[in-house]
Amino acid sequence: MWRLFPCSWKSEADIIIPETNNNGKAIAVRNLSQSFSMFSSRYFFRNTSLAGLFLLLFLPLTVTAQKWNKDYQDYIDKYKDIAIEQMVKHGIPASITLAQGILESGAGKSVLAVKGNNHFGIKCHEWSGPTMIKSDDRPDDCFRVYKNARQSFEDHSAFLQRPRYKSLFGLSRSDYRAWAKGLKECGYATNPSYPQLLISLIETYNLYTFDNKKHYDHDAARHPGKNTAISITNPHQVFSYNKNYYIRARRGDSFVSLSKELNISAKRLASYNELDKDYVLKEGDVIYLKKKQKKAVKDFKRRPHVVKQGDSMYSIAQMYGIRLSSLYKKNHLSGVYQPRVGDVLVVY
Q1: pLDDT in tens, 186-222
Q2: Between helices 194-204 and 32-39, what is the axis angle to 10°?
Q3: CA of residue 304 relative to chain centroid, distance
């Protein structure tokens, strides 16, 4: 649902990166860096080849693997504390600040970020400091240059204090979707897909978890990047299914170890998968990164699940990306029910 913002720029149609087609069937999801290379109006990411189709061991449909982008995660680890600091001081959601930084600076690798410490693509308007010329909307656009990344983050917060963006601060700090759309409405970017690009980043990397933080590492905020987080050398592939994301556990994985890579607390990750955080993961276990849906994708509206040897109510729920309680409820079953081979269960 669109919100109306009293801004000078009118809304343009969202271009949504699809997860399902009109029939609800899971389809290939573009790697985010590819989507950005197509849509970003400020910085074009390098194209990466599409991940090959990966046939899942038990999920009902084939989907495309989406690799966790290490550059994005490194950027988040480096700048999360200053993003939280700016949120505490100025009320701008940390998730929005981080997503804009990743998108506008190519995760800190754009020419503007490397040569000018400019992480947000802010131009020279009403600026008396150092500048640099770079082709953008025009071949000779002028951009602000900062002494360091911290100054860029602080100026981003100050930039959003302008009257043009006043309506944003009437929104809830936890409503990152409204903030993303509001930035576009108020004229921060000309790209019609800008809100969805921000939202995709926030939801893929769970940046919304920073929006309820009250405390942060003050030294890391003052000197972003000085103390870098644990380096993830072999990140898990991230898949998309039933309006959710998931990975497959490897040998030796635990919710605690995965929490460090995925930036989701072990307790929350276990909760999303209806398990105790001390549960011992097995190789191949499907681990969802958000709360599961109440029903399967629309493809299974008239295709119930027929119980096979080895099925449990839990494994069936994981198979379709639905909550265990919903599976019991849809089939009018009590918690003591144990599936038998040949039983027919509604999943949509």
Answers
A1: 999 889 999 999 999 999 999 999 999 988 888 788 8
A2: 160
A3: 31
